Every structure is written in C-alpha cells, then in structure tokens.
Amino acid sequence: MTPGAGQDETTKTTLPATGLTAGQDGALPPWSEITGLSHASGIGAYTTTIALPAGWTRCNGAYLDLGRLLRPGSNTITVTVATTLDNAVKATGGATYRAPDQRTGLLGPVILTPNAESPLR
C-alpha cells in the first residue's frame, strides 16, 4: 500500500521487483531504506536460488528446517513478509501519526546453514 489522495486513504500498488544484496553479516535493508519503498506497507516476497551439491540427501538439513524440501541442484526459496499499514497511513500526512516509520521487511541476518543428521549410538 502507498499513500492515497487524502489523509485517510491508501492505494493498493503493485511494485516491480527490486534487487537486494545482503550485507556481509547476512542483513537485508529495511523497506524504509529501499528506494521507492520508504513509506510502503503490505506484502513483500524475498526470493533467492541456492545450488546444493550432487551429494545432498534427505539426511541433510538446513536452518529453517528445509531439509525435506531441498534437493540436489538448484533450489528456489521464497519468504513472504507482511507488514502493518502504519507506514503508508503515516505518509498520508495525518497529524495523528507522528511516530517514526517502522523498520519492516526481512531484516536478517538471513543465513542458510547446512547441517547433517547422524544417529546417536
């Protein structure tokens, strides 16, 4: 959602995909720091593709417990994030909304850490 014509209006807007690069610590920028999203509220999808080695098996796992879903080769992972309408409503200019913009989005750090399960004896 983006600000609408009046103080009490927001407009549903579909924005084009924006390329993001995670920092060295895996952190992604909040929407307020991304050009065109500074006052956006709504639903965003983060998508990445990872390549796993041919030896990847169902015994391997990953942080986020994706082990049963991952396969050897190319894997696309999408995380969908929903925000409140707070930032879009505040951007309409109403005097009621004076709090700072919320930091929204998938802030991270976002790290996929492979692991393997071994039975204990």
Give a written overview of the molecule:
InterPro entries: Galactose-bd-like_sf. It comes from Actinomadura napierensis. This is Tail fiber protein. With 121 residues, the protein is mainly beta. It has two domains: 49 residues, no CATH class; 38 residues, no CATH class. The chain contains one helix and six strands, in the order βββββαβ. The strands form three sheets. Strands 1-2 form a two-stranded antiparallel ribbon. It is elongated, with a radius of gyration of 19 Å.
What is the N-to-C succession of helices and strands? Answer: EEEEEHE
Largest beta sheet, briefly?
2 strands, antiparallel
- Percent of residues in helices: under 10%
Overall radius of gyration: 19 Å
Short description:
Helix content is 4%, strand content 25%. The protein is mostly beta strands.
Helix and strand arrangement:
Layout lengths: L1 E2 L6 E2 L31 E10 L7 E3 L10 E10 L3 H5 L23 E3 L5
Key attributes of the depicted protein:
121 residues, two-stranded antiparallel ribbon, mainly beta, 2 domains
